Each structure stands twice: as structure tokens, then as C-alpha cells.
């Protein structure tokens, strides 16, 4: 069974936009109310049994169970009697909102961090329609429960044999989008190592380098638009956040806006620019992933935790590059195109000579690899990519047979010739002075 997500632009009319915004705010209220129940129950169990808190105390019966997903979901029909506004939202949308909270809670319990937080006004950006009895797509329209038919730009048709399982409606500053999840019973076998092998090294100086000598120049999407973003954020900081209070004696409207109109206009400009930066980065990464799949049928990457890199003094540039997103995109594109992608150990790839495999220490400022043993000279990033490819070979081949002519090394040698693998098994004195030019 295979599941894919297709994203389309939708164009709801004014009434549908107003209804969607109301649904988002209603779901936000449901999310926050359920989270309040969960936090109150936890706080009532924090106090030691032999003493009380000096500030406040949550008193909840000992027999009251933990407000889990099933319990809070079953409370929704009762809540609709007290809050008729909940009836305007599809019931399954409210249920998925509760599910969303408990997914975040389960993540916190498993990982130990990331406790769910209350969502402020406007922070709920998507709702999920989890089930459809019939295909909601009719030509250039999509039919959603209690919303009706919405215009959709179906630029990519749904493949034959796939059925629509669920639809997520996402609100962004540039417009509304529908993420359609489609599913089919067909099974696609996983790709196996074959064809041309390459290693890929990512970095900030050059976005990536391959073992074949291809170097992709670095792209800084956020930095390129940072000057314009500073101007928009400076204008936003000077806007009045809330509407002025009505004069004395004037009737006070309960439907007072949360933010002033000028503040909201300035905030939308900032959000649109952030969306533009994210779209440019993702489009570039998809094109680059297809380019790598054109170069080789087997690709090796480093198993780096880029969240650790983002904590360093180059964290801003690391986040801007989006290496983790690029790795996920490469896996997705490679699976569609039948390209095998695997990860290897990243430790010491830039400190190892790819030709004779000895350790060659280099500082971060040293951008050129020069081996004192085998006299192998080339760019540091390309040398690191070749070492990644070497480790990929070792990972696939039989352990302990390094240097022997096994089938994987001979038949699928890729960019490296068999002579190189023979030289790797020889001593440094036998290799002699060897200089490679790419």
C-alpha cells in the first residue's frame, strides 16, 4: 500500500473564507479547552501528599481518570449542547483537533520535551477532513462537508488506482491550499543498490558536492531577502496592536477586533515574505533532488543530526539552508524514481583521505585536501563526498573483504575504477606519489 500527498491551490469565495476562519477559531478554542483540562489534571497530581502549595492548588477528585483522547472525544456531543457554535463545524474536524492535541502529548511523553502549548489568536492554520465516502473531486472543484464546492487548481491529476482518503485545508498568507492524501493498494518495491554510485556532502560554503566533482554553489534564501524583511518588520513594530478604546459614553461593542486593521495588513506582508522564502527554498531543493537522481542510481548521504548543527554559531545559516528538509525531499524523489538512497556514518568524513584512508586533520578554514602520504590533492568538499561514497561501498559490501574484487565493487563501480580499490588495499610505499585530477 502506498500513500501520497498532493498539494493544490484552492479559491474559496468570500462566504467560504469567512466560514473557514470561524472554523479555525472554533477549533482553536476546542484545542485550548482540552489542553486546559489536561494541564489541570496534571497540576492536581503534582503536589506532594503531605503538604500543599503556597500559591494555588488544583483540587480534582482522585477517582477522576486522565482526560485521554477517548474521553475528550466523547465529551464533544455534550459540549455542543452548551456551546451551539460547535455544531457549525463538522464533527470529524473537531475530533481530529482533539487527536492533534494528544499526538503532541504523546510526542512529549516519548521524547521528554515539547509540551503542548496554548494557541494564540490566528495560530490555528489548518483543519483536517479525515474521511470521504465518495471522491470529493469533481472536475475543477472539491466538495467539502458543510462548506460546499470550492474551486481548485487541479494542475496534477490524481493517478489511476488511487482514492482520496483525507483532505487538509491550510491557510497561508498567500492564499488557501488543500493537501489531498491519496492511497492505493499497489506496492512499489524498495530500490536496491544499482548503477552509478555517488556520495553527497552538504555544507554552507557550497550547498553540496558530489564524489564525481559536481559542486552546487551555496544558496542563502533568507539572507537574500533579509533586507526587505527588516523593513517590513520595522513597520510592523510601529503599528498599533489593538484598536483604540471607544470614547467615554460610546457603546462598547463586544465584537471588538483582536487587532487593528493597519497592524493586520503589516503582519500579512511579513507573513507573505516568509511564505515566499519558504516556497523558493522548497522549489530549489526539489529541482536539486531531481538533478542528483539524474546523476546516479545510488546516492549516499551523511547521517548528521542537523538540529545539533543549528545550535552552533552558524545556526542561522544552517536553518536557512534547510538540510533536513532537503534530505526528506531527496528520499521522496528517489523513491518515486527508483533511486537507492542510504546514510553512512558522518564522523571524520572530512578528516580522512578518500584515496589512502589515513587521517588528515584539517581546520574549518582549510578548504583544500592535501594528503601527505599519497599526495592526493583536491577540494575538501569533494574529498569528503568521495569518502562518503567509500563508506557506502563498505556498508553494502561484505565486511572484512575490503580491497577484494567482489561483485558490488566490480560491477557497480560507478565513478571509481577497480584500480583505485586495488590501490586502497596496498601499502603506502607501494602506492607511491599519485596525483589525481578530476
Q: What is this entry, summarized?
A:
The chain is an alpha+beta fold. The chain has 14 helices and 14 strands. The strands form three sheets. A seven-stranded antiparallel sheet has the order 2-6-7-1-5-4-3. The chain has a five-stranded mixed sheet with strand order 10-9-8-11-12. Strands 13-14 form a two-stranded antiparallel ribbon.
Can you put this structure into words, describing what you see?
The chain has 438 residues and is an alpha+beta fold. The protein has two domains: 2-39 and 64-184, no CATH class; 190-244 and 259-438, no CATH class. It contains 14 helices and 14 strands. The chain has helices at residues 14-44, 69-74, 76-82, 91-111, 221-224, 226-237, 261-295, 306-309, 315-321, 323-337, 380-396, 407-411, 418-424, 428-431, and strands at residues 2-11, 126-129, 137-138, 141-144, 148-153, 163-172, 175-184, 197-202, 206-210, 215-217, 298-302, 340-344, 368-370, 377-379. A seven-stranded antiparallel beta sheet has the order 2-6-7-1-5-4-3. A five-stranded mixed beta sheet has the order 10-9-8-11-12. Helix 1 packs across helix 4 and helix 7 (261-295) packs across helix 10 (323-337). It is globular and about 80 Å long. Mean pLDDT is 83; it is low at 251-257 and 399-438.
Amino acid at each position: 500500500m502506498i500513500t501520497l500527498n498532493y498539494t493544490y491551490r484552492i479559491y474559496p469565495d468570500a462566504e467560504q473564507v469567512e466560514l473557514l476562519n470561524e472554523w479555525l477559531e472554533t477549533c482553536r478554542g476546542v484545542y485550548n479547552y482540552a489542553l486546559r483540562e489536561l494541564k489541570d489534571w496534571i497540576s492536581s497530581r503534582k503536589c506532594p501528599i503531605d503538604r500543599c502549595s503556597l500559591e494555588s492548588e488544583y483540587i480534582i477528585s482522585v477517582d477522576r481518570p486522565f482526560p485521554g483522547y477517548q474521553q475528550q472525544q466523547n465529551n464533544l456531543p455534550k459540549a455542543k449542547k452548551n456551546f451551539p457554535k460547535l455544531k457549525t463545524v463538522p464533527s470529524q474536524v473537531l475530533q481530529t483537533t482533539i487527536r492533534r492535541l494528544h499526538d503532541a502529548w504523546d510526542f512529549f511523553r516519548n521524547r521528554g520535551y515539547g509540551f503542548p502549548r496554548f494557541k494564540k489568536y490566528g495560530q490555528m492554520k489548518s483543519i483536517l477532513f479525515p474521511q470521504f465516502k465518495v471522491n470529493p473531486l469533481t472536475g475543477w472543484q472539491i466538495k467539502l462537508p458543510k462548506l460546499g464546492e470550492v474551486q481548485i487548481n487541479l494542475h496534477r491529476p490524481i493517478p489511476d488506482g488511487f482514492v482520496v482518503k483525507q483532505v487538509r485545508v491550510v491557510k497561508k498568507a498567500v492564499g488557501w491550499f488543500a493537501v489531498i492524501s491519496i492511497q492505493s493498494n499497489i506496492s512499489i518495491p524498495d530500490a536496491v543498490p544499482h548503477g552509478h554510485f555517488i556520495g553527497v556532502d552538504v555544507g554552507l560554503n557550497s550547498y553540496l558536492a558530489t564524489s564525481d566533482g559536481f559542486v552546487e554553489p551555496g544558496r542563502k534564501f533568507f539572507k537574500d531577502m533579509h533586507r526587505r524583511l527588516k523593513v517590513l518588520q520595522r513597520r510592523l513594530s510601529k503599528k498599533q496592536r489593538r484598536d483604540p478604546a471607544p470614547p467615554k459614553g460610546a457603546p462598547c461593542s463586544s465584537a471588538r477586533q483582536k487587532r487593528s486593521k493597519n497592524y493586520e495588513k503589516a503582519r500579512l506582508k511579513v507573513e507573505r515574505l516568509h511564505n515566499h522564502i519558504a516556497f523558493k527554498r522548497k522549489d530549489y531543493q526539489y529541482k536539486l533532488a531531481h538533478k542528483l537522481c539524474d546523476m546516479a542510481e545510488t546516492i549516499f548521504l551523511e547521517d548528521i543530526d542537523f538540529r545539533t548543527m543549528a545550535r552552533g554559531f552558524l545556526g542561522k545559516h544552517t536553518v536557512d539552508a534547510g538540510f533536513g528538509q532537503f534530505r526528506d525531499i531527496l528520499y521522496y524523489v528517489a523513491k518515486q524514481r527508483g533511486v537507492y538512497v542510504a546514510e553512512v556514518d558522518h564522523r571524520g568524513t572530512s578528516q580522512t583521505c578518500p584515496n589512502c584512508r589515513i587521517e588528515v586533520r584539517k581546520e574549518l578554514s582549510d578548504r583544500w585536501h592535501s594528503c601527505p602520504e599519497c599526495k592526493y590533492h583536491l577540494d575538501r568538499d569533494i574529498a569528503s563526498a568521495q569518502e562518503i561514497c567509500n563508506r557506502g561501498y563498505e556498508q553494502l559490501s561484505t565486511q572484512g573483504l575490503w580491497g577484494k574484487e567482489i561483485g558490488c565493487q566490480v560491477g557497480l563501480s560507478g565513478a571509481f575504477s577497480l584500480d583505485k580499490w586495488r590501490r586502497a588495499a596496498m601499502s603506502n610505499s607501494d602506492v607511491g606519489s599519485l596525483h589525481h585530477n578530476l
